[in-house]
Amino acid sequence: MEGNATLFDVARVAGVSLATASRAINGSARTVGAELREKVLRAAQELDYSPNVAARAMKRGHAEVVGMIVPDIADPYFSGIASGVMKAADEQGLMVSIASTRRQSEREAEYVAGFRRQRNRAVILAGSRTTSRAEVDRLRAEVERFEAQGGTVAAVSQRKLPVDTVVVENRQGARALAADLADLGYRDFAVLAGPRDLLTAKDRLDGFRAGLADHGVDLARERIVNGEFSRDGGYQAMEQVLAECDGVDCVFAVNDVMALGAISAIRARRLDVPRHLSVAGFGDISTLRDMSPRLTTVRVDLEKLGRLALEMILSSGDGVPRTHREKCQVVLGSSTPGPKLASRRSAARG
Amino acid sequence: MEGNATLFDVARVAGVSLATASRAINGSARTVGAELREKVLRAAQELDYSPNVAARAMKRGHAEVVGMIVPDIADPYFSGIASGVMKAADEQGLMVSIASTRRQSEREAEYVAGFRRQRNRAVILAGSRTTSRAEVDRLRAEVERFEAQGGTVAAVSQRKLPVDTVVVENRQGARALAADLADLGYRDFAVLAGPRDLLTAKDRLDGFRAGLADHGVDLARERIVNGEFSRDGGYQAMEQVLAECDGVDCVFAVNDVMALGAISAIRARRLDVPRHLSVAGFGDISTLRDMSPRLTTVRVDLEKLGRLALEMILSSGDGVPRTHREKCQVVLGSSTPGPKLASRRSAARG
DNA sequence: GTCTCCTGGGAAAAGCTTTTCCCATGAACG
DNA sequence: CGTTCATGGGAAAAGCTTTTCCCAGGAGAC
């Protein structure tokens, strides 16, 4: 009973050859007589046999493991996606390895290489990719090596790579948000835009600007402030807006945690949200749903993104990359009740 | 250049035997002549050789992977711990596999078995364990099998298993919190206590009660309401408190997300925190730090917990389980400014 | 009745590394 | 100068599974 039973033991107990035992257990193309199969399975049960995945991986060339790469697992956005991936993987009997780049996007390629060495069956790249050409090229090269080795790759919110991709409709979402805010009467916007080379951030900014343009609202260049994609980035960008921009009605932060930082910066100035300034975010992070005022944001079903990515991997196509577009939905909260009465009145008069 | 170079290729190019090549690359006990080692390393570099981890795992009996089991990766508490584990693992060149039980604690044993099959080098059990005897026994049995196979196991916030453990001083933290709240003048507490069979929840409740007792404050049994360890659990438990308990000053929720739910429940009644009721939590989740009012809570350094767990695994002891106690620290926020003026005055008078 | 084909079982190789065991060379020691 | 070690290199086995190839027996066809 010490150690682990091997397939050899099972075969011996069942009185068959290794080949038959393997075929009975794995259900290969070759059929096994019902009687023998029964015997093998009983022996396996009795010995509490579990296959040695290392040996299997060596022989098959890949392990039943999917690797996942996220910028930061502690960010609720990515842990939400990871949660969806893990749930779907569990249903398929797959293990999930997670690597966090800690927002150093150049490490993504490294981790893909690492997963290749691990002979993982698939890799899911989550998170907002960089727009830096050199990095994308390096990543693409690693992805190709991974695929050359027989692996499958999928991405979430990333359409720069020739792989199956779950795209969050960042543009559409931000555009709808802008439309709704304009409908509420806001006219003087500022945007906390995240890093300049982050695709997700860029898409949300572009969409937002487009939505405003639809309503004939212009977004001045100096009202767009770049910053880190994090809570602190939002705080600092907001400080800059407060210092430099006059007459701002409503601030759009390209993600929820930036919005959170922005609200803190506003309060640090002893101003109130939404009395003095309205704020909107993007993502609808669950821990923020109970915040008061309720943050206006754009809901993304994070778990669904993860699940879709895994499903794409399993149904891996005939080589031509597919794209699944996932819409998102505006959630209006009390953080954007409409512009201050004063300005609305003056607008009505004018 | 197609496929991957094997150690055999390296040996051939370097003009040495497999044994020498392996020894040069892995730095075994046997020394390799400087000249040959140099040749081997150059050949490996040239061929872009990377060892086949599956073959290595098979031979060595374990893979350089640590498995981690959490109740819910989307919960910021656990993703924080996971983040610490992953950071430390990365520094050691280890991969991390994560499994989420989705709060079904009976699945923990299953996942330990899964990691055993994967021949993972170690397992980290994170999260608040059940007090159910049968489940603990089953888990202990699986842990022993894992260790029998040569693996190491560590736990975070769990002292029911004979393994290296990072213990969060839940009792101490809750006790200090109770003391501070009592010092502020609160006397009429209610506790949203989480599931009855959850050790973490129980410890926090016990510590809180002890802290109150230190100040001569009694916590009546009917002021303790059990509920799920989640946001919704907090909401429901709070509803029950609002419906059934009179004269409550201050509510202690045994974790932050429950506190969040509680605050929502209070607001749903059109009451204000902290004007009508004060609320405290436990955990100091980062996304909640910007909430207004600032939630009074007990800070736990989540990343540190994860890092410590991994370090314990690497320095795996001589068999006798070690315990690292991690203190936590009370953070007083505006959600508990002290009891309402009215009651404080009457207390002063009486 | 013989030949061919198909089904299902088994032996053995392959997959890649690590490690044991053996061997040769040169140094140290008596 | 002969014996004994220590050092470093190589051949080969082990670790466990999957899969190819071979083979035997039975069924069907002519």
Question: What's the total number of strands of chain A?
Answer: 12
- Please report the two chains with the greatest interface, counting residues with C-beta closer than 8 angstroms to the partner's C-beta: A-B, 55 and 55 residues
Task: Describe the largest sheet of chain A.
Answer: 6 strands, parallel
Overall outline of chain A: elongated
Organism (chains A, B): Lentzea cavernae
InterPro entries (chains A, B): HTH_LacI, LacI/GalR-like_sensor, Lambda_DNA-bd_dom_sf, Peripla_BP_I
Keywords (chains A, B): DNA-binding, Transcription, Transcription regulation
Protein name (chains A, B): LacI family transcriptional regulator
Features:
homodimer, alpha/beta, six-stranded parallel β-sheet, DNA-binding
How does the SSE layout of this entry go?
The structure is a homodimer of 350-residue chains.
Chain A: H1 7-14, H2 18-26, H3 34-47, H4 53-60, E1 63-70, H5 76-91, E2 95-100, H6 107-117, E3 120-126, H7 133-148, E4 152-156, E5 164-168, H8 170-184, E6 189-192, H9 199-214, E7 224-225, H10 231-244, E8 250-253, H11 256-268, E9 278-280, E10 297-299, H12 302-314, E11 323-326, E12 329-331, H13 341-349
Parallel strand pairs in A: 1-2, 1-3, 3-4, 4-5, 5-11, 6-7, 6-8, 8-9
Antiparallel strand pairs in A: 10-12
Helix pairs in contact in A: 1-2, 1-3, 2-3, 5-12, 6-7, 8-9, 10-11
Chain A binds a DNA duplex (30 and 30 nucleotides) through residues 6-8, 16-20, 22-23, 26, 28, 30-33, 36, 51-52, 54-61.
Organism (chains A, B): Lentzea cavernae
Domain HTH lacI-type (chains A, B): 5-60
Pfam families (chains A, B): LacI (PF00356), Peripla_BP_3 (PF13377)
